[in-house]
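ok trying again, last paste got cut off:
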Amino acid sequence: MSDDPRKKVDVTPDKTVVRALSQGGLLGGTGEVMVDVKDGKIVRIRPFDFDWKYDGASFRPWKLERNGETLEPGLRSRPAPYMTAYKKRTYSPNRVKYPLKRIDWDPDGERNPQNRGKSKYVRISWDEATDIIAKEIARIHKQYGPAAILVQGDGHGESKTIHTPHGHSARLLDEMGGFTLQVRQPDSWEGWYWGSKHVWGHGFQGMMAPQLNVCKDVIENCDMVLEWGCDDETNPWGFTGQNATNISYFFTKVGIKQVYICPELNFGAAVHADKWIPILPNTDAALQLAIIYVWLKEDLWDKEYVATHAVGMDKVAAYVLGEEDGVPKTPEWASRKTTIPEWTIKALAREFGKQCTSILHYFGGSMIRGPFAHEPGRLECILLGMQGLGGPGVHQWQMSYFGMPRAEALEHFRYFNPSLSHGLRIPVQSSVDAWGTQNIPKTLIQEAILGSETIHFFGTGAQNAETEDQFIDYQFPNPPEEGGTRLHMIWTDTPCRITCWNHGNWTIEAHRDESIEFCVAQHPWLENDCLYADVILPANTTMEVEDVLTNVRQGPPYQTCMLQEKAIEPVGESKSDYEIVLAVAEKLGMTEQVTKGKTVDDLEKEIFEGMHVDRYMTWDEFKEKKYCVFPTAEDWEQDPPGLREFYEDPKNHPLKTPSGLLEFYSERLATHFPDDKERPGIPKWIEKGITHDERLSSERADMLPLILMSNHPRWRTHAQGDDCTWARETPTGKVLGPDNYNYEPVWLNPKDAAERGIQHGEIVKIFNERGIVLAGACVWERMMPGVTYIDHGARHDPIIPGKVDRGGAINTIAPHGLTSKNACGQATSGYLADVQKIRPEEWETWRRDYPDAFEREYDPGAGLRFNGWVVEGGVD
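nice, full thing came through this time. structure:
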């Protein structure tokens, strides 16, 4: 390279490989990109041209039209900005480069569990690491039984199929007699999963299903869409890229009114909203009840539809009108709960009742992830039902994730499209079919480790479990005669429990408990729960392996299948997650049991056939072209949109409810849980309960006067990507402190900031009785008064493990309480906290008493560095 910066450097790539960089994990999604590689290094990542090796006309591009305007898929992908910056993640200074062992953990001596999160690590060989793991598995099995090993092998991650980031350890342990499965629960749709299922049936994790062709029907018929707790310029990015952006701009172009109901002027509202209605977090149920009140009083609902398509309207009406409890749910009543002016509530109700309206989401938001979130989840179904759910333009739509024109060869998407594993023959090398000996919901891990009593819970929370599962009384541990035992080892490939789930500080306490004798983590980056592991194994990224990816989530312009060549050689000594487990399996003599005698090439061919790519080309052609674009089905316009068949003929197209109809009143909930005041037979306003007291009416609000909300992050996908330097440089990415540390932004209204003497850009503390999190103040009118907002998923950087976090990991202080008494989801948004300036003496005390926390090697551009936790051989 020339020393003269004026001379142009030749970056003509040696090769270009295809990738899909969505971060939803197994089954892919979107974010299709082209990766240019030169001299063995990634030099550029750019949007993917679907017609790179094909004639675009062969894809049969769909068209949606209204008012003389046309929406088409285009021929170029729309990845999220941080996807095109993914080389920064691949080459992050925080990559785990080789196997590590905690310096004061000795499998034959003192294990010092109390030092997890404090102790540093030393480099060991792969041979030593796999020896340790194999011996520990054998010892645990002999001493306690197979179920004493907890597998945390679920959640989001890089999109891969054979080398998928999660669950390979479950396949190995299942062949050895079992394990305890941490059940992956709905982490972005709690209210729908634990609520809406009881109104319209199983759906897709509680969300309305089917949703095929809903996009077409919304565009052709809707006058207005309510983006309720939805940020279409944030939530979709990590899964389906910026395709929702394209649709929202089209709404504006054709005159479909977009109303955003959310506490913050989020990124979608700032760009697309015709009207923003700020609402106090976790008060959506009050607004919904008041809308129903106006409809009942002003005759703005479809009585005939409700009479033939629903049960329980009489009970709902009696509650809303105050006949049951003496409290009419008027707009005036709701205004006191939500802070929305009563005239705004009336205007919204009237417009909703008179105009063709759909409700749009993209998974989690302030509405659906808080305490008692199943109540707004159920009330949303009732609102839509009162307006003729399934009729023209009346839908719930998970925007751009579902509802797009169907692709040919993917027939299982015609009526129900939950996941690829339900329809196509894909040889998934993970825990999809490995359920272990016993299971525990992810929200109850702390009790499972720290408790001494048997835990009872209703419903596993498994994503695709039928509604009936929520009435089954499960227990942990299982009875001894069924192989039940308490936990003594953790094997995690999803080390983000602390920063993405409920009460992370209590999770830290559980990880440090002496009952956990061994914890092993495999991950590409040294972050979050890895800091509490005894052995850490270096996994590589999607850029470093060959795989076949099934991009069939509905968001992309087209659905594809890609042969992803290895872009670069593995960083350091890293291996794929599949290869890591095979290395352990070899030491245990279990290789054949895990692989079933199949090579990676064998598995690639099986995916090729299972995805029906062989209808369009031979295997050799696929290897040459590297990708297949599934053309739009010729008959896609004939697919009934959403619940249209139920709308037209509920008798012959019933819902998956006991009555086959919309159940505004759930006889099953009332019968199975007659004493449950938090999730009664009809959805109600729950001021507080035995599970939560997190409203401003709480006595605790005197000390904690703000409601803290936490949404999906703007510049990462949950916990993925917090070290992307380009994203951290954005004004809403991080706030650079005077100590040259980049802090997670916390939003405050100027009124609340002024009352606390807080200036924009100042470093502050967010706190409640569960701990303290440091952040950088972002003071502006985009946040309503009385509320503070911080994204979840920032990397945990403990000053005092379990008490004070510097990295912005807000879920460390989230409630432990479940969604409600008998609904074991999480409630990690809409809870009491306060924000205050950090006193000088607090800084002094922390720096004096915990100097190691401030001396760890740190890069403001990328954040925490691998070297900061490694001794005896740490390298750049």
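cool. Confidence is low (pLDDT under 50) at residues 413-432. Residues 126-143 form the longest helix (18 residues).
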